[in-house]
Amino acid sequence: MPRPSSGSRSPRSAAEARTAPDGPLGAPAYVVPLVVEDFLTWLTAEKGRAANTVGAYRRDLLTYGSWLGSTRSTTVEEASADDVIAFVGYLRSGGRAPASVKRMLVAVRSLYRFRVQEGYADSDPSADVDVPRAPAGLPKALREDQVQQLLDSVVGDDAVARRDRAILEVLYGTGARISELVGLSLADVDLGSQLLRVLGKGAKERVIPVGRYATKALREWLAAGGRPELEPDRWARRGDAEALFLNQRGGRLSRQGAWLVVRKYGDRVGLGHELTPHVLRHSCATHMLDHGADIRAVQELLGHASISTTQVYTRVSGERLRAVYDQAHPRARPR
Length: 335
Description:
This protein is mostly helical and 335 residues long. It is 51% helix and 7% strand.
């Protein structure tokens, strides 16, 4: 039996829906059509998208649906091309970064393509709406001396200091994502071979090398006086006992917790808002290329699906080389 065409609701969507928090304009709570939930389920089950990616799509579509209801008096299912264009204008006028506008429109277009493919609609109102071009921003990277100052700022030999030192060494030493770091379990660590097994985007597993400084920090964290000091008498959750990094309550360290660790030491050395876990990932890649690493080896280390994603770091290294040359060579610039 064919699904309803554009302009009508799925037979289930009127009876089955989920309620979202109030919309961005203070409108009443937005009821999410089941077609959106079906789309999010499809992203997970059929496309293998990571939970964080699906969560981002959910937030963007909640914003879109709530705005349609409060501003255009229409729904996701009944929206026209003019509504989609107006939504893009709303995002731009609200001061959102071009990259954010592009990301949200991609979510909207993906939903409508799914509707057509699955028979929910006959046409796609977003098909002719151009995706805004976001400027290609270069990744931020710390200088090597800044990284050294950051790592040296972890002082002490207590359990928390050992954990924090290991976190920073692993993030910079391997270029791992913050989600990959907190997802590590004890079985994923082979200090004898100096290897880590991480689960990246799309549930793709890869094995990456660990340098001697990160290995030393991990050994100290796992030894008596380190991780054992934070282990509770009774584990609150099933997976906490296997977690590599623990919080001070004895549970698996969360992304937010690891992020705060990075920010704490960034503030300590005066980096402030310049430093995030992703900056350490950028710094790892940039410094490796600066020192002659093969770009495909860096691609493998970072878990990039495409070499084009890694190539942006070659631009960073090239610009850094130009800056050093201009500053150091006596005939680089007119005096």
